[in-house]
């Protein structure tokens, strides 16, 4: 999975699957974090749910998570401020998701 450092934190790719049975990280798929959300992709609801869920999953404030690319697509680039590449790798490893 590609994690890119940016000015205030990191950016990574995510694939969003809306209208799922539950909110969860389903693993790593095509170099991106696959996230399933219960929210439908209507009026930005899935985007808001995505940012809230990622923040909860990473145990950070929702204000530190933003979608910087792909607002109307299932393929998104998510930016997390205040998080280092090393810390993100640790989180993925602890959640048994990181594969080198």
Name the descriptors:
Conserved Hypothetical Protein Mth637, Chain: A; globular; 2 helices; alpha+beta; six-stranded mixed β-sheet; 100 residues
Your description of this structure?
It is globular, with a radius of gyration of 12 Å. The protein starts with a strand and ends in a 6-residue tail after the last helix. The chain has 100 residues and is of the alpha+beta class.
Indicate the topology.
Elements: E1 3-5, E2 9-17, E3 24-29, E4 32-36, H1 45-58, E5 65-69, E6 75-81, H2 85-94
Parallel strand pairs: 2-4
Antiparallel strand pairs: 1-2, 2-6, 3-4, 5-6
Quick description:
The chain has 100 residues and is of the alpha+beta class.
The separation of the N and C termini measures 8 Å
Helix content: 10-25%
Question: How many discrete domains?
Answer: 1
Major beta sheet summary: 6 strands, mixed
Identify low-pLDDT runs: none
CATH third-level topology: Conserved Hypothetical Protein Mth637, Chain: A
The CATH homology group name: YggU-like
Strand fraction: 35-45%
CATH architecture: 2-Layer Sandwich
Would you report the number of β strands? 6
Number of helices: 2
CATH class descriptor name: Alpha Beta
Radius of gyration: 12 Å
Structural class by helix and strand composition = alpha+beta
Order of helices and strands: EEEEHEEH
Q: Estimate the global geometry from the Cα principal axes.
A: globular
Estimate the mean pLDDT confidence: 93
């Amino acid at each position: 999975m590609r994690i890119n450092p940016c000015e205030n934190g990191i950016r990574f790719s995510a694939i969003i699957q809306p209208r799922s049975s539950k909110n969860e990280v389903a693993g790593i798929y095509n170099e991106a974090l696959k996230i399933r959300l219960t929210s439908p992709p209507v009026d930005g609801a899935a985007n808001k749910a995505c940012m809230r869920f990622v923040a909860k999953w990473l145990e950070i404030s929702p204000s530190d998570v933003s979608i910087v690319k792909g607002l109307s697509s299932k393929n998104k680039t998510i930016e997390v401020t205040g998080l280092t590449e090393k810390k993100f790798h640790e989180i993925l490893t602890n959640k048994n998701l990181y594969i080198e």
